[in-house]
Amino acid sequence: MMKDMMQQLRDTAISAILKAENVESLEAMRIKYLGKKGELTAILKQMGSLSPEERPVMGQIANKLRSDIEEALDQRRKDLEAVRMALKLESETVDVTMPGKDVREGHKHPMYNVLDQIKDIFIGMGFEIVDGPEVELSKYNFTMLNIDESHPSREWTDTFYFKDDSSICLRTQTSPMQVRTMLTRDVPIRMIAPGRVYRKDEVDATHSPMFHQIEGMVIDKGITMADLKATLNLVVEKLYGEGTVTRFRPHHFPFTEPSCEMDIRCHKCGGKGCPTCKGEGWIEILGAGMVHPKVLAGCGIDPDVYSGWAFGMGLERLAMGEYKITDLRLIFENDVRFLEQF
Ligand code: PHE
Known about the structure:
Blueprint: H1 2-19, H2 23-34, H3 39-44, H4 54-91, H5 110-124, E1 128-129, E2 135-137, H6 138-141, E3 161-162, E4 168-170, H7 176-184, E5 189-198, E6 210-220, H8 225-240, E7 246-253, E8 256-265, E9 282-291, H9 293-298, E10 307-314, H10 315-323, H11 329-333, H12 336-339
Parallel strand pairs: 1-5
Antiparallel strand pairs: 2-4, 3-4, 5-6, 6-10, 7-8, 8-9, 9-10
Helix pairs in contact: 1-4, 2-4, 5-10
């Protein structure tokens, strides 16, 4: 009787297990057949009614039945997992022979090519490249550069200020980097500081409210205007070729004394006058001068011991000259058709 029941359980259980379609239903079957409240347990509850001779025999059959069902469960679980793995591998196959997606490669903006050239020249002469904020204290942008409150460049019509108190602005020049460098570094100093500057200018072929400058400064004992001229002449020769003729014209900047502007002889017409140099024969490329003693002293450097020179030049104009670009707007519009020409 009990033996028949066990035989029947074996048949139904094993055939059901072998048909199980997933691991979850296998687990349900394990509980159904072998669990504490399962079918095998139910059968074994009748052990009490057996004779002492029959009991061990039935016990043995029951143990065998349990281990056979367990084995079937195990086997089916392994089979199901193998199938699942095979499906997964198949769905994740990568065809390494398939052609890749086209990646469009960009290239450096022409203006940054010129900047890199200039950086290389100055690094070669032992200068350091420093970087500073575009949102600047008016104190650094103006006051500590000896630009007093009444100077026209401080007007609201010329400068982008933050808040109403005009103590913070978008820097109008890279010259505040002179102040920042003197305040944070020990002398001697040899640095250039390229970056964006902002002025309230209307956009046209030669103006933009945002443009780039490169500041440069040298501070040491015994620095003179001769160092300024020799260094800048060397830079120009490396940039425009040996023998490029330059001239220095007197000028005025509040933070340098004396001050000058540097011109190069027009490389297009050789000085006769042409559209490139607007008939002048010369092209202005930068402003410079000896750092004003007041500026040095204000930054904690003794002007009786140290002296220095500084310059500031516009990067766009240089790039326009080098690549014969006639409209400043082309530099900022980022039209790929334009940029790809360089
Ligand atoms: N900051 C000046 C300008 O924007 C240029 C300059 C820099 C002049 C350093 C002298 C020394 O015009």
